[in-house]
Amino acid sequence: MTEADNTWSVKKLAIVFYPFAAGAVAINLFLLGLIGIALGFPAISPVMSVWLSIPLGIPATWWAAKWVRGLMDEADGK
Fold first, then answer.
1. pLDDT digits (tens, 9 = 90+) for 14-42
2. Phi, psi torsion values for 8, nearest 5 degrees
């Protein structure tokens, strides 16, 4: 196996990280909704948070994958 075959691309990392990033986005949206109640906005239900996290999790996942790929490159001395 060559060195190039053993590396994780940003795309592969993003596929692995998506469920975790989308879950984190859902939790943060729900908590933001709780803060919004104190400011007079309507409440965001947990189900609505999950539905909104599906598309919003994509950019969060991409950012996290790029960050981890950079850390991996730094650890490899690239």
1. 999 999 999 999 999 999 999 999 999 99
2. -95, 125
